[in-house]
Amino acid sequence: MPEVLLLSAADVRAVFDLPSAIASQRAAFRALGRREARLAPRLLLDGPDGDVAFCYVSRMPGTGAVSKFGSVHPDNAARGLPTVSALVIVQDPEDGRPVAIIEGESVTTLRTSAASAVAADHLAAPDASRLAVIGCGPQGRAHVRAMAEVRPVERVALACRHPETCDIAAGLADELGLPVVAAPSVRDAVEGAQIVVTATTSAEPVVGGAWLDSGCTVLSVGSFAPDRVEVEDDVLTRAASIVVDDVPSALDHAGPVVAAIRAGRLSPERVQPLGPIVAGLADGRESAEDIVFYNSVGVGVQDTAAASVIVERARDLGAGRHADL
């Protein structure tokens, strides 16, 4: 067997920054939109206490197959641990041999926020500057940085589960040079926002449609399974466009979409994929006054695109270590 490149979370952070992550996710969704990527059905396995195990497999032109296996443990936040744990395995495009094993939580955090940035870049109003982020964990923090990369963000309102103890606003304000405030409630954060990101693992809606201003874009990244529903039904009924990362995956796994279809308040035909929008083959927003809802469950091609960049840069920079299997 060949030597396999082993990349830790520190290795990933050393070679994979936000601009390269955003570029990788543009490539991923462009390939999906042009039907150049191959995507296996997304697998979820429920566990105790709300835990979910997952597995993705996909490939893009010029890449070998890439698989990611991991799990989401919401209670880890109280333990001071990441809620997502994962490994990404990369195969050689010619002979299928394993060439890299990558720590997956660091990949997931950055590629998820980068994909949201790509979605916002195509769906949000060009001058959107007021951002609300619901959830103050790693994804919430990463999304503040990612949104600031693609939109002229002038103000950020954070809504945390425990606002009285939330202390990340000041750090983000210093890091980004932006006014970042901890809102006393989710509603206070959302009202007046032009971009709303929900980065929780909540099974109960946290955002109501009546709170949204016209022209608002809502990006749900924590509604990744049928039992995870971060927004009320009226968010979807008010939305002029409902966009997802992959339609078949969303119809099975995107909690708000599944719930609205089951209740008869949403036709599956209204759900459109992000890929053709990124590829320039479709429009995601028709009017500046439209409310747009985007639900990301996470799909394998995102990991394939990210892993391709990570492995190439790691080889160029000599990052990681090699091991025989």
UniProtKB/TrEMBL annotation:
It comes from the Bacteria. Gene3D superfamilies: NAD(P)-binding Rossmann-like Domain, ornithine cyclodeaminase, domain 1. GO terms for cellular component: cytoplasm. InterPro entries: NAD(P)-bd_dom_sf, ODC_Mu_crystall, ODC_N. Pfam families: OCD_Mu_crystall. This is Ornithine cyclodeaminase family protein.
